[in-house]
Automatic annotation (TrEMBL):
UniProt superkingdom: Eukaryota
The entry's keywords: Repeat
Name the record gives this protein: Crystallin beta-gamma domain containing 2
All residue ranges annotated as the Beta/gamma crystallin 'Greek key' domain in the record: 51-102, 249-291, 337-379, 428-471, 518-559
Record gene name: CRYBG2
GO MF, one annotated term: structural constituent of eye lens
Lineage per the UniProt record: Eukaryota, Metazoa, Chordata, Craniata, Vertebrata
């Protein structure tokens, strides 16, 4: 099919001096002609973030070769030296040079010839083949021409044996690719994976006026409608963009000012001139920072028919027509994640970067027509770990400059010499205190960037002396304000934020507060100003005594910025809440206890009052954990992943670490001797049943 402009990608390798991608690291962005002086231990690890690479035994790309595709690998005894080492003592890892070979989404192509010097009728491959045998024998091959790609050539089927590693070029005879076997039994090209981002919450991009990172430069941490010099400009700006360093985050570069014209996805990496970001020309005049949750990508494309034919995608699709959907797309609904749509197949041609939201026509996503032939999501490098981690980064200067410190746990005493003027919340939510050991005035910050003290909600000259993580709470927000003590008198019940109690027609006079669900930040004045109080599930019968004021000006619930995955472990049986049944058996799917600690069958997350399982999130409407039928004590009700009952809401009682239904029901274990004894049920609260206690293991 027709291919468009090839879209280049930056390359990156991270070399660690310990196994399991730990320890000190060295970043490699491009070719390194001599690494022989690098001092490495006997066992190191490597993470290939982008591209296909070759590691050579000697400098100047000479000697034995080792192909590296995207992923994480352990490197020990790289060149099989134990064969000459009778003591089998591991020696320090040594290699001489590294070359980046796969740089873009160009389609690999290899031609196999039965005679030397490319004579005879050739057989062409553009993709992997685990078994090339024809008439029971591998393909006889005396010479090879590789038009594009990095190929691994095996003499036997199913990738058995040591492969020959071949770059683009001609190989007129067997000696040219250092083999004695005139057969190719299987072959495999190393290709580029989907776009990825490593540090989405620490964005920084540096634009240089000239190629190869020379000339005047400007650094940006957020959107820039233009960075090009105007005739009347008095501030520092550039005449053009000659080269780019993307130090963090995922960005979109635009050909024209104001986010118009051709779009270029700018991943973390080095772009030494405009050809390396896939430009149509040297024009690049505005920048957009993508601020999004990159997990669980999901998008729906709608065609131009009256009946609304559509296709839902959750992963890379090199040719949309192969799904049974055409190439004409009239509207797009991005449900989650960040996507790149391409005009042509195999991720070629014009590209359009799509964030969460609804695009009504092609002009909305920046195109001049409705042709979309391939799509792929932008992924987090470490997304597969499903790891949730709180993190705050404080800076000594405004706009995230100066020196910085990062904390991933509570810090009771920040050094007096460190004065924070800006901060980034990179995970979770945090409370900042003016005094040590979490005392004094407090300021609650949810995920995001706060470029000044004012943006942090702090008065000028505020000094932050301690920081504390906001605990995770799995329950729907619900708070009641009363105008009398002990929860009497007029009640104001809220489930969402309120910027001003008075502006919404209520009297802000408050003498008692009952937080029934969620985590809330209560402010002294409207518009989230004045003193702040962070409240978990709590009953405050005397609000003036608790807070020192007799009113509430505004308030808002704290919501998780990202999906939090966890496992539920029964405290009595030490087994995990799990889904039983394959995709084809979902009609009989059950929620059970399982000994298995691994696998997505027992990975859950909390959303809108429901516990949802990760296993079937893309295939069916997201499974929920309600009961079948209406509960009538003291019967036990079996749980099902497909029940459509929607009025059941769950919450985590932090003191008991158990889930309850409207505070009257709890998850329990059916037991007995019947076939369904492993079923998880809900049952009325019984403090004498230890099977009603559950431990939440955050991933």
């Amino acid at each position: 099919k027709e291919h468009g402009k090839i879209n280049a990608r930056p390359g990156k390798i991270i070399l660690y001096d310990e196994p399991n991608c730990k320890g000190n690291k060295t970043e490699i962005w491009g070719n390194v002609v001599d690494t022989s002086s690098w001092d490495l231990p006997p066992a190191v690890s490597i993470s290939v973030v982008r591209g296909g690479w070759i590691m050579y035994e000697k400098p100047q790309f000479q000697g034995k070769k080792c192909a590296l595709e995207e992923g994480n690998f352990e490197l020990a005894n790289l060149w099989k030296e134990e064969e000459d080492n009778p003591d089998k003592e591991l020696k320090p890892v040594k290699f001489g040079s590294v070359r980046r070979v796969v740089r873009d989404y160009g389609v690999p192509k290899i031609d196999l010839f039965p005679e030397e010097k490319a004579e005879g009728k050739s057989v062409t491959f553009q993709d992997a083949s685990d078994d090339t045998r024809m008439y029971g024998k591998p393909i006889k091959t005396q010479s090879i021409i590789i038009s594009s790609g990095l190929w691994l050539i095996y003499s036997k089927p199913f990738f058995e044996g040591v492969p020959s590693i071949l770059l683009p070029g001609g190989y007129p005879n067997l000696e040219a690719w250092e083999t004695k076997e005139p057969y190719v039994g299987s072959l495999l090209p190393i290709t580029m994976g989907a776009p990825v981002v490593e540090e989405p919450q620490e964005p920084m991009i540096e634009i240089f006026e000239k190629a190869y990172f020379t000339g005047k430069s400007c650094t940006f941490c957020s959107d820039a409608r233009t960075f090009i010099t105007r005739k009347d400009a008095k501030t520092l700006s550039l005449r053009t963009a000659g080269s780019i360093k993307v130090l963090g985050g995922c960005w979109v570069g635009y050909e024209k000012e104001g986010f118009h014209g051709h779009q270029y996805l700018l991943e973390e990496g080095m772009y030494q001139d405009w050809t390396e970001w896939g430009g149509y020309n040297d024009g690049l005049k505005s920048l957009h920072l993508i601020r999004a949750d990159f997990t669980d990508p999901r998008m729906i494309l709608f065609d131009d028919t009256d009946c609304g034919e559509s296709v839902e995608v959750t992963e890379t699709v090199p040719d949309i027509e192969l799904t049974g959907y055409g190439t004409t797309t009239k509207s797009i609904h991005v449900l989650s994640g960040v996507w790149v749509a391409y005009e042509n197949v195999d991720y070629s041609g014009a590209q359009y970067i799509l964030e969460k939201g609804f695009y009504r026509n092609c002009e909305d996503w920046g195109a001049s027509d409705y042709k979309i032939s391939s799509v792929q999501p932008v992924l987090l490098v470490r997304e597969e770990k499903l790891h949730s981690q709180a993190k705050i980064k404080l800076y000594t200067e405004s706009k995230f400059s100066g020196s910085s410190v990062s904390y991933e746990d509570n810090q009771g005493a920040i050094p007096e010499s460190f004065k924070s003027l800006s901060c980034r919340i990179l995970g979770g939510s945090w409370v900042l205190y003016e005094g040590e050991e979490y005392t004094g005035n407090s300021y609650v910050l949810q995920g995001g960037e706060y470029s000044t003290l004012t943006a942090m909600g702090c008065p000028p000259n505020t000094s932050i002396r301690s920081v504390k993580k906001v605990p995770l709470v799995f329950s729907e927000p619900l708070i009641s304000l009363y105008n009398l003590e002990c929860f009497e008198g007029k009640e104001i019940e809220l489930t969402t934020e309120m910027q001003s109690i008075l502006a919404n027609g209520f009297n802000n006079h408050t003498l008692s507060v009952h937080v029934k669900g969620g985590m809330w930040v209560v402010y002294e004045h409207s518009n989230y100003r004045g003193q702040q109080w962070l409240l978990e599930t709590i009953e405050i019968s005397n609000w003036p005594k608790y807070s020192g004021v007799q009113h509430v000006g505004s308030l808002c619930p704290i919501r998780q910025q990202k999906r939090i995955y966890f496992k539920l472990k029964n405290g009595e049986l030490n087994q995990y809440l799990s889904v039983m049944g394959d995709i084809g058996e979902l009609k009989t799917g059950r929620v059970v206890l399982s000994d298995k600690a691994e696998g997505i069958q027992n990975i859950w997350y909390y959303e809108a009052g429901f516990i949802k399982n990760k296993k079937h999130i893309y295939i069916f409407p997201v499974p929920k954990l309600p009961i079948m039928g209406v509960p009538t004590p003291p019967q036990k009700k079996v749980l099902s992943v497909l029940s459509k009952v929607s009025f059941l809401y769950w919450s985590l009682i932090s003191s008991a670490l158990c889930f309850s239904f409207r505070e009257n029901w709890k998850l329990d274990y059916k037991g007995g001797n019947a076939f369904d004894r492993d079923n998880v049920v809900i049952y009325n609260i019984n403090e004498e049943r230890p099977t009603q206690l559950w431990t939440v293991e955050i991933l």
